[in-house]
Design brief:
Layout (H helix, E strand, L loop, with lengths): L1 H9 L6 H19 L5 H11 L5 H18 L1 H7 L8 H12 L3 H34 L4 H18 L4 H15 L2 E2 L6 E2 L13 H9 L1 H8 L25 H16 L5 H15 L11 H25 L5 H12 L8 H4 L1 H24 L1 H7 L4 H20 L2 H19 L5 H24 L10 H15 L3 H18 L1
Antiparallel strand pairs: 1-2
Length: about 500
């Protein structure tokens, strides 16, 4: 009952004109960002955060919710029409969506994608509203040692699972940890790694890092002519009538469930949810031979699943500080910018804003349907925008936004440096999400580790007292060992075969 009371108390905040405009603008921009290959929700939010610095928290978070939801649907537009996924989660959409477009059913394909995306986002938002508060209550019982292991687990899982090469993921996390300790020591108050520079006393601002790592590299790619496409004359085809929408209901139910489960597991993300949903739905289908040839359920399943993943990734992010993917990590940065610290206190100290943000995730799922339906042809025209113009526009917005934070040219230069580092990391296939997460979780891990040692009198065994600490420590160990398990299994298999042959 307390959850519903908190929701009812926060709901009137969404009637504010600024919040309504923010959600509409965010959703419209999100669809456009998703529709442009090479751009992503992560980049869109990273560019937006500096521009929302002076806004009311709920207005800014409403815009971010709109971009997050809208971009997930927007990625299906180029996937269906041009066979180019607008976002990584749009890969599975290509399989049947583009085939439908080739058969003259592009309008129907876009409609299926829109309805599936809206339903998936709505289900995910409801799950966020109902599951996040109970999880926050559990987190309130955590000790400093528990929080230390939780922060380490979050960094470890993202570093290991987001990288094809675990060593590169850990390297990225270590880079973030180094950045996170710049500034004033939270326990002793001493300066650390400021190099005598006043600008470093307050540490490295999370927006400067986010904007540099996520907004600058795509802008450079666009200016260099990468990610460019030839849209040509896109034809949506005639309106399709007589389609049996009820036939997709079982697909939506199964795909929503898959998206929710995947969203709750750190580091998997919408692309995994989409591919799993496509594969599972194909397994249920009686017409497996039609899959990959324009099967409507093959389009509905991945689109519903990757949108059901969106708000679900925020459940561990808001309650425990462990984001499910790179976008959720950027959203955590947005919360910190507006004075909201992820964790169980978020649901008590800032209840109206927190529940209001979760409600905007639900409202923008409906706005996504309305805006996508009314502006389908306009968003198709977005594909014709010259990519060489987009790069300088994005770069200009990032410079203006970062400068507006503290009116500091130093921070603009620092952001550009991080942009070049991010560009180099992408070229070397080093993920940037672990670095961002380490900047957020690193100080939390350090502070709670030192607090735990102060409480215990420097007794390190205190870190493994209690079942929660032991379970979290085992999970960290499991995450570190998991990349090498297949190799160990193969090695044992070879040894067993060799011993059998020797006998």
């Amino acid at each position: 009952m307390e959850i519903f009371s908190a929701i009812l108390h926060a709901a009137p905040g969404l009637l504010d004109l600024g919040v309504i405009v923010g959600m509409i603008v965010g959703t419209a921009v999100g669809i456009a960002v998703g529709a442009l290959p090479g751009l992503s929700a992560t980049m869109g939010i990273a560019v937006l955060i500096p521009l929302t610095f002076t806004m009311e928290p709920l207005v800014a978070l409403g815009m971010i919710a709109g971009i997050y939801n809208g971009s997930m649907y927007g990625g299906s537009i180029p996937a269906i029409l041009l066979r180019i996924p607008g976002t990584p989660a749009g890969i599975a959409t290509v399989f049947d969506g583009h085939e439908m477009a080739r058969q003259g059913k592009a309008r129907l394909a876009l409609d299926i994608s829109l309805v599936s995306s809206s339903l998936g986002s709505a289900v995910s938002a409801v799950a966020l509203l109902l599951l996040a508060p109970p999880l926050a209550l559990i987190a309130l019982k955590f000790s400093p040692a528990n929080y230390f292991w939780l922060a380490v687990f979050g960094m470890t899982t993202i570093a290991i699972m987001l990288a094809g090469n675990p060593a590169k993921g850990i390297l990225s996390a270590c880079f973030g940890l180094c950045l996170g300790i710049v500034g004033i020591d939270p326990i002793s108050g001493n300066e650390r790694f400021t190099f005598g520079t006043v600008e470093f006393l307050s540490g490295i601002h999370i927006v400067v890092l986010l904007t540099g790592l996520y907004a600058i590299p795509p802008a450079i790619d666009l200016m260099l002519g990468r990610n460019s496409i030839e849209a040509g004359n896109i034809d949506l085809g005639e309106k399709s009538t007589g389609f049996r929408w009820a036939s997709l209901i079982p697909t939506w139910v199964r795909a929503s469930g898959i998206g929710l489960v995947v969203g709750l597991i750190p580091a998997l993300g919408g692309n995994i949810a989409a591919l799993l949903a496509w594969q599972e739905e194909r397994r249920y289908s009686k017409n497996k031979e039609n899959w990959g040839k324009g099967e409507p359920a093959g389009l509905a399943a991945p689109e519903c699943a990757n949108n059901a993943d969106t708000a679900a990734t925020l459940i561990p992010a808001l309650t425990l500080g462990i984001p499910g993917n790179a976008v959720a990590a950027v959203v955590l940065g947005a919360l910190l910018v507006h004075g909201l610290r992820p964790g169980p206190e978020l649901f008590s100290a800032n209840a109206d804003i927190t529940y209001g943000f979760m409600l905007t995730m639900l409202v923008t799922s409906g706005l996504m349907f309305l805006i996508g339906k009314l502006g389908a042809r306009a968003y198709v025209n977005v594909l014709r925008v010259p990519r060489q113009l987009l790069g300088p526009i994005i770069l200009a917005l990032t410079v203006v936004g970062v400068y507006a934070i503290h009116n500091s040219i130093f921070e603009v230069a620092l952001m550009l440096c991080f942009g070049l580092i991010g560009f180099a990391m992408e070229r070397m296939e080093i993920p940037t999400a672990p670095a961002v997460l380490a900047v957020i979780l690193g100080p939390i891990a350090e502070e709670n580790l030192r607090r735990a040692l102060l409480i215990s009198g420097d007794d390190f065994s205190y870190l493994l007292r209690g079942p929660i600490s032991i379970v979290l420590a085992l999970l960290v160990l499991g995450a570190l060992v998991s990349p090498w398990l297949p190799k160990l299994k193969a090695s044992f298999g070879r040894t067993a075969r060799e011993s059998e042959e020797g006998q």
